[in-house]
Amino acid sequence: MNGLYRPRDGRIIGGVCAGLARRFGMEPWTVRLLALLSCLLPGPQFVVYLVLWVMMPSEDRYVARAH
C-alpha cells in the first residue's frame, strides 16, 4: 500500500502527518516537526492541514477501496 491515507496507528491529531510520512518513507516526527516549523512562515499551512484531513481517506476506507 503506497497510497496516501491516514493510518490507524501513529495518529496524533488527524493522522495527516503520519500518512504523509508513511507515503514518502519518512519518520512521522520529522513530518510533524516540518509542519510545526512551517507554521512560523506566512501562509495557509493550517488550512492545508485541515483540507488534507478531510480529503485523505482513513486506512479503513483505503483498504476497503483497494480490495
UniProtKB/TrEMBL annotation:
Transmembrane region(s): 33-55
Residue ranges annotated for the Phage shock protein PspC N-terminal domain, each copy included: 3-59
Primary location recorded for the protein, binned into one broad class: membrane
Keywords tagged on the record: Cell membrane, Membrane, Transmembrane, Transmembrane helix
InterPro entries: Phageshock_PspC_N, PspC
Tagged with keyword ATP-binding: no
A Pfam family that the UniProt record links to this protein: PspC
Subcellular location: Cell membrane
Membrane topology term: Single-pass membrane protein
Gene Ontology CC annotation, any one: plasma membrane
Name of protein: PspC domain-containing protein
Native species: Actinomadura physcomitrii
